[in-house]
Amino acid sequence: MSVLIYTESVEGKFKKVAFEIASYAKKIAESLGTTVTAVTLNTIDVSELAKYGVDKVLKIKNDSLVNFTAKAYADVIKQAAQKEGSKVIVLSSTTDSLYLAPLLAVSLEAGFASNVVGLPVTTTPFHVKRTAFSNKAFNITEIATEVKILSLSKNSFGLVESPSNLIEEDFAPVVNSDDFSVKVTAVEKSSGKVSIADADIVVSGGRGLKGPENWGLIENLATVLGAATACSKPVSDLGWRPHSEHVGQTGKPVATNLYIAVGISGAIQHIAGVNSSKVKVVINSDPEAPFFKVADYGIVGDAFDILPKLTEKLKEFKIQNA
Fold this sequence. Notes:
Helices cover 27% and strands 24% of the residues. By secondary structure, the protein is an alpha/beta fold. β13, α4 and β14 (228-231) form a beta-alpha-beta unit. The termini are far apart.
């Protein structure tokens, strides 16, 4: 009857979201009087999960599952849930988890709630708070099925340490060849950079940067902050930056602790896609830019003058506080 979580990893190491959903699941488990079980796939060291309240880990090691395949991953998580008798399953809101969640829900005949931003309001009946209308509102959703799947919005709960005595168990689910009808032919990954999915801070640039040759201003600020770099849709469409950096409603959603938008006017689709970020800072030379209406902090001025000064001040601050 334990609460089951799927803990994502990259190259054998856990993503930050794995620890956030572990923290969240621990609180649910406490309210239900049960434990937390994690499913890991080809993860090298699982011991860190003990810091965040996980009681048991089902370790899956299978070379056919090195690359993400939604159908196959959903199938093995289903088998883990059935083995543990889990009635509550918690996933993250990464692209991978959002792909596999509906498949898992169908196979378990479970209700699925995405964009969850808080612990269950009640467990009998089971009510959860979710964002709605592109993060402009909230609703309370009831899940009436016996098995319930929750997808937790990034940075909505945070990391909460709750040390446990972790039990590790090897688990070998049946892997069906039919689950690999979609073949992964190549996986391209950037190295040496913070990914948008894992970043607590994102520095994003728009057409106000005037050209790709000026992107060093964005990268320098991001390096000092330990942030990921991103861009608006027009920038990726122009070929200044790769489409993998395009954020917004039509690109990658962003829910960081700090989002800095430089030279981005603030089209409604962009704002909708980043509105879940806790603090939004806008730097733009146009005082009428729509982005200022939703910003927590705004600077009206020339980015070519502001960014170098801001970067230097942050460098000085880091040295003084090292």
